Structure formats: C-alpha cells, structure tokens
TrEMBL record:
The keyword Nucleotidyltransferase does not apply. GO terms for molecular function: NADH dehydrogenase (quinone) (non-electrogenic) activity; NADH dehydrogenase (ubiquinone) activity; quinone binding. NDH-1 is composed of 14 different subunits. Subunits NuoB, C, D, E, F, and G constitute the peripheral sector of the complex. Keywords: Cell membrane, Membrane, NAD, Quinone, Translocase, Transport. Belongs to the complex I 30 kDa subunit family. This is NADH-quinone oxidoreductase subunit C. It catalyses: a quinone + NADH + 5 H(+)(in) = a quinol + NAD(+) + 4 H(+)(out). GO terms for cellular component: plasma membrane. The keyword NAD applies.
Length: 169
C-alpha cells in the first residue's frame, strides 16, 4: 500500500471543499496543518473520518488557544486527528472572535471530544454549540473568568518574596 502524502490530502480537500474553505496550509514536522472557518469544521472532519483512503478516525487532541492581538480571531481550536491505518496526522485550526467564541461540537463523531471540549470551555470560554453537557470540568462553577486566556498575568505582581535571580531574570 502506498503512503498517503500531505499533498494528496490537500488536493483532495481543496477539490471537495474549495480553495477558499481550506486555507492557511502548512506543515510542521511532517504534520499537515490547515485552517478553516467554523462552518467548515464538522463537514470537513466528517469527510476525513469517512474517507475510504484517509480514515482519520482517531481524535488525538482538541485544544483551545488564545491570541489576544489577532483582532476578530482571538480564540481558536486546534483539532489533532490521526489516521491509525495510514499513520498520518493532521491539525485543523479554526478561529472565532472573543465576543462570539462559538464552535460546533464534534461529540457526535468522536465521543472523546466531550471532555476535550469541556476543558476548552472551562479554560478559554469557548462555546461548543450542540455539546450535550457543556459545563466546567476542573474549575469551580462560580468562576466568572477563564484562566488560560492571556489577559491574566502569569505571576502575582504583588508578591515580594521572589528573588529574580533564582528565576533567570
């Protein structure tokens, strides 16, 4: 069996969804990376899952990200899919404005997305529309902020018990 290449996947996806729907194409350490709009996520992932040759039927990870300087695309989700049969991986990225961080859920295809989406909601405030039980998973329900967003300082500036030399500063 011939190994599937990233170029074959790109060509197939662009012929299926169009070159404007699949953009931001890149590669890191041999892993294909594509960017799509939030409306393309579910159809694309379903297509990759059901494809007769690609068979991306394993969700390795789903992670939230925050880029406060990217106006209109501050919050994002990265989907890590793996084709175990072909030993090929792909990252799918999508972004939304911080004022409306809504992404469709993929729990209908990958049951493991349930906890991953809840974690992204808990830490970044990303809302997964259609999720069966979208609530905090690790933080207290009373929290009114999302701690992994970069709008919060990493360290407590009021502490004076740290010696900067010990922290490489």
């Amino acid at each position: 069996m011939e190994k599937i290449t990233n170029q074959q996947i790109i060509a197939d996806l662009q012929s299926q969804f169009g070159e404007t729907a699949i953009y931001g194409i890149g590669e890191s350490h041999g892993i294909l990376q594509v960017t799509v709009g939030t409306d393309t996520i579910v159809p694309l992932i379903h297509y990759l899952y059901q494809h007769s040759a690609f068979k991306f039927q394993f969700l390795t990870d789903l992670a939230g990200i925050h880029f406060p300087d990217a106006k209109g695309q501050e919050l994002g989700v990265i989907y890590h899919l793996h084709s175990l049969e072909n030993n090929v991986r792909i990252w799918i990225k999508a972004y939304a404005p911080i004022e409306n961080p809504v992404f469709p859920t993929i729990t209908g295809l990958y049951a493991t997305a349930n906890w991953m989406e809840r974690e992204a909601f808990d830490f970044y405030g990303i809302i997964f529309e259609g999720h069966p039980n979208l609530k905090r998973i690790l933080n207290m329900d009373e929290m009114d902020y999302f701690p992994m967003r970069k709008e919060y300082p990493v360290e407590d500036a009021t502490r004076h018990d740290k010696i900067d030399e010990l922290f490489g500063r």
